Amino acid sequence: xxxxxxxxxxxxxxxxxxxxxxxxxxxxxxxxxxxxxxxxxxxxxxxxxxxxxxxxxxxxxxxxxxxxxxxxxxxxxxxxxxxxxxxxxxxxxxxxxxxxxxxxxxxxxxxxxxxxxxxxxxxxxxxxxxxxxxxxxxxxxxx
Length: 143
Known about the structure:
- Helix content is 76%, strand content 0%.
- The protein is mostly helical.
- The longest helix is centred in the middle third of the chain and has 47 residues, at 64-110.
- The mean pLDDT is 91.
């Protein structure tokens, strides 16, 4: 962005005929942009309609920050994927915890009933959920 704004200032200095400012702005270009700028000038951009619109469009120009940005974007995408997987694992741990709380609730409520069949049924459901919860907890990834 800095090179682009300096290039715009260079164009304004050129239009004003200020060669000292033009030279100073060229010195302040990044090395990659300066070489692209020189290539762009060789294409006679002010008289050649087929010339690239600016130094950033010269085929030889490579922006090193753009390459670094692509690398950082890749790293960020990998970190995001890891975070998503960790969140899903955490959600599964929470579900198992809630399941165990339900087992405790069923055992406690089942003891309050006078009818033996209801107590046995409640305990049987609690045991079934406990076995399922233990299996699910055993298959979860370890933290």
